[in-house]
Design brief:
- The protein has 17 helices and no strands.
- It is mainly α.
- It folds into 2 domains: about 170 residues, MFS general substrate transporter like domains (Growth Hormone, Chain: A), CATH 1.20.1250; about 190 residues, MFS general substrate transporter like domains (Growth Hormone, Chain: A, Up-down Bundle).
- α9 runs parallel beside α15.
- The longest helix has 30 residues.
- It is globular and about 55 Å long.
- Keywords: Cell inner membrane, Cell membrane, Membrane, Transmembrane, Transmembrane helix, Transport.
- It is found in: Cell inner membrane.
- It is a multi-pass membrane protein.
- It comes from Roseococcus pinisoli.
- InterPro entries: HcaT-like (IPR026032), MFS_assoc_dom (IPR024989), MFS_trans_sf (IPR036259).
Length: about 375
């Protein structure tokens, strides 16, 4: 199987499961007998575990040499955890399942990205196109889970996720071997932080990706309060994902021309415009236009990060990926909590705080080293 096809399949499997599970996990916990407060606590515990587990998984993978084996093992354990959601009930059992599943799931996507970086170094294929498979199957997973949940209840989503993770484990062993002679792990868990420019791209990615927290948590509530229909709100969310897919599939020349610095500036600048618009208007036409910026705020920032990581030594690749994932997770969690406090008092003005964060990221992106950008672009 060719490297692009093998990575497209594994990203497709992963995001099919994530798309199925994400909308319905709170409903699964509620059906298992948890109160609203307990649901929030169990979800928060999962976020904390993912934050702690992802970098450790990266360190183990760098030291093990063959990242494929670690990816397959973590996907298998995560699949067992997903099955646990389909079977467990009660606070103690569901909390234990959530913790175990979150620890195993935390490194799955970062390790896949690390393997993709290694394969790109060797085979030179277009990462964005193969990653687009995940964006497409995320939508398909959500749609499929919605139908399954209507027939069999919320736990059906957990079984879709379990099957997707079993497929991930199988496909991980069929990925190309990205190991290189002399590319064994060097230094501690934090070794990537010593690489030139890594801390800055880490901070920019955390701020720009984290700025989506208010969007994910409160945009639907904000638009419903303004009188927009649920059907139109669904269209708005769809526009965002479509723009992301279009960038991944057709934007290769554009991405190569901009490089790391240009993509980061585009993402941060688009974030300022997008979140300011969300704060200032609920005019449907304006919202449709700025929703197309999701391809920039999420997609361009993700591709900038991947290009920057291509410039790092192979021996720190897995740790770098998982440190980025942890930084984004921590920032998103904190901003979701903080934007909730602002939204409770000022409603849609919470998006202005997200715009300000992107403004800071824009200033940091201006200082990204051109040498680093050129190295990552090559």
């Amino acid at each position: 199987m060719s490297p692009p096809r093998s990575f497209a399949l594994i990203y497709g499997a992963q995001f099919l499961g994530i798309g199925a599970m994400t909308p319905f996990l709170p409903a699964i916990l509620a059906e298992g007998g948890l109160t609203a407060g307990q649901v929030g606590g169990v979800l928060a515990a999962g976020s904390i575990m993912r934050l702690l587990a992802a970098p450790l998984g990266g360190r183990i993978a760098d030291g093990a040499g063959d990242v494929r084996l670690i990816l397959a093992a973590t996907a298998l354990v995560a699949a067992a955890g997903a099955a646990g959601f389909g079977l467990a009930a009660g606070l103690a059992l569901l909390a234990a399942v959530q913790i175990a599943h979150s620890i195993a799931m935390a490194p799955v996507i970062p390790l896949t990205d690390a393997l993709a970086v290694g394969a790109i170094r060797r085979h030179g294929f277009d990462y964005a196109r193969i990653r687009a498979a995940g964006s497409i199957t995320y939508i398909l997973g959500a749609v499929a889970a919605g139908q399954a949940v209507g027939l069999w209840g919320p736990r059906a989503a957990a079984w879709i996720l379990a099957g997707a993770l079993l497929a991930t484990a199988f496909l991980a062993l069929r990925l190309p071997d990205a190991r290189r002679a002399g590319a064994t792990a060097q230094g501690s868990l934090w070794a990537p932080l010593r690489e030139p420019g890594f801390v800055r791209i880490l901070a920019i990615a955390a701020m720009v990706q984290g700025s989506h927290a208010a969007y994910y948590a409160f945009s639907t509530l904000h638009w419903q309060a303004a009188g927009l229909t649920t059907g139109f709100i669904g269209v708005l969310w769809g526009f965002g994902v479509v723009s992301e897919v279009l960038l991944f599939v057709y934007g290769r020349a554009f991405v190569l021309r901009l490089g790391v610095r240009g993509l980061a500036l585009l993402a941060a600048g688009a974030g300022v415009l997008r979140w300011c618009t969300f704060a200032l208007t609920v005019e449907p036409a304006a919202l449709i236009v700025v929703q197309t910026l999701h391809g920039a705020t999420f997609g361009a920032m993700h591709l900038a990060t991947m290009q920057a990581l291509l410039g790092l030594p192979p021996g720190v690749s897995a740790r770098a990926q998982t440190l980025v994932a942890s930084a984004i997770s921590a920032t998103s969690g904190a901003l979701m909590w903080g934007s909730g406090l602002i939204y409770a008092v000022a409603g849609g003005q919470a998006f202005l705080a997200m715009a300000a964060l992107c403004g800071i990221a824009f200033l940091l992106a201006l200082r990204l080293g051109r040498a680093q950008a050129e190295a990552a672009r090559a």
